[in-house]
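Homework help thread (please don't just give me the answer)

Our assignment gives two proteins as sequence + structure token strings and asks us to describe the second one. The first is just a warm-up. Here they are:
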Amino acid sequence: MNQGSWFIRERITLLIGSVFLLSGAVFPWYCLPPQTLDVFGTNLFWANAGRLLLGVFAIASFTYTFIFPIQQAPRLVFWGALLPILLFPYFITTWSPAVSFIAAEYYNRGEEVSSHVENNFSEVQAQWKQNILLDNPDIPASTFGMKIEDSRFFQLPSWDKVILEGFGYKNSFFALIGKGWGFALIGGMITLMGLYLALIQQGLNLLIQDMKVLAPVTVLVCAVIIGSQIYCNIANYQLNVQFAKGEYSQVVNASKVLTRFYPALKGDEEFLERLAKAELYTDNIEPGLLNFIQGLENYKNSNFLEAERYLKQSLNSQPHSFLVRGYLVAALLNQGVNYFNEPNTKNAGTAADIFEKALNIFPGHVEALYDLMLARVVNGEFQKSAEVAKQIINGQKYLQEPGIGLMGQAYVHLTWAEYQNGNIDKTWERYRQSVDTKAWDESGVGE
């Protein structure tokens, strides 16, 4: 092919990379329900801020595809754009703990519900689930996942935790990742391939030359990230020592500085409990924090009604505290489950009302929706159960892989509602959706 022709492999490769980069700028990088974000007082601004910068790189890539010589493209600048894309999970899990917490709750609660569906499959069709029992929820997960328990962490087999927790490459994060991040990552790599193809005669030498600059920078960035997390663990341990010595003022001051330096600590139960006790001993405790530890103490003693009272007071003082909100929902769910599981005197109606309260605190909470759906149908409220099922189906669209068992059960409840309405054709259609994933979108999700 004539080298002067536009249709040469480096330009075609660069064009493909440019299209992917542009797609990365157009599509969201992270997906969470807006209503949930509003209630938690957070947003995805920083999660999607990289899209603006990526749009600039997409335009630059297009200009080198159609206008300027590819050989003049600043390769190191494009490499520099790829590194923040790779570190995106770290930025979210460390510097946006509320978003990370919501994502973890969506994923973890979804896993628990899926397990319940599988373990109780024999009860699915039995007397409209009259004999089924609900599971008590687990406590909310800490956002401080990079916790070094002992010296074994520094052994090589333990360093997968650095990738999963330190850099954020864990299942709960990727369960809600958007298409934009994947397009950005692919586009960045393809664009770099196109740049080096244009310099094929000296491509390997230039790549080696660039790596001599990039490798030290990359190692330095990773070392700073890992070093900061190790330092936080050392500082956290030191706070335990100071607390044991009775140096409560130092504990309070250092804790507040540490949360600004490493925001993920705001979602760690042990860290907040120590801070609250230290403030209590200095007679300068924040009311919201005091109510939180009192609620936590009652929760640990399975006194869920008292836990709810204290946690509500704590939430009124600090409405954007995601960990308080998470524990309050767990306290409500435990109350509802206990009512639902009462032998002989099962009170599904009361349980349903409590589950509704939990959803006001945490809209879209997967386990609360699932429990509410079951409570409604056991109470004979098939239409209300179907409405909850639709919420479940619509909420699953934010996940990369919707829970098959949960979706199937949601469509089962839609089937029962249609049967109660006497709509046989619609009943058959809903039943198909409950057993065939290919039929999910035939009539619209949750329609």
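The one we have to describe:
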Amino acid sequence: MARPRPNLGTPFGTDGPWLAAILDTLGDIADLLDARLPAPASADGGGSASGDPIRVSEPAPERRPDKQSVPVSEPSADEPPTVDDDTDADPVEVTEPAPDARQPLPPPPPRRGKGSGLDAWQVFANVAKVTYPPDAGRDDIVNACVEAGVISADG
């Protein structure tokens, strides 16, 4: 039931095409509800158009469940967690790498072209722990990385 939409213009004011379109839509919704919902009860107390009451019954199981319900409660937030007897309670030793050990570095940014900007080289130098002056340019940071031995001079 598609119909063409009218050109409604500006949505200001209490009259005009916008109000007519809204009222038309509300009328369509009311017609749809009338068609889909059951008929209202008659004035004499009957529940259907024929005057007979509509009986509604809830579906129920044929027999009751065998087991008794057990309520569930959450543990208090203040209680410490309990350790089960079957778990291993021995502490696990954690070793950290020596501070001198160098982690593998990501590949350096290109020296020219796309991705070779100052920001990329600053990030690389910071990850490689290369010091450079705060006002250093891209070429200065590249030279500092070469002097620190992080990258090769030939590029």
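TA reply:
I won't write it for you, but here's a hint about the kind of observation we're looking for: The mean pLDDT is 75.
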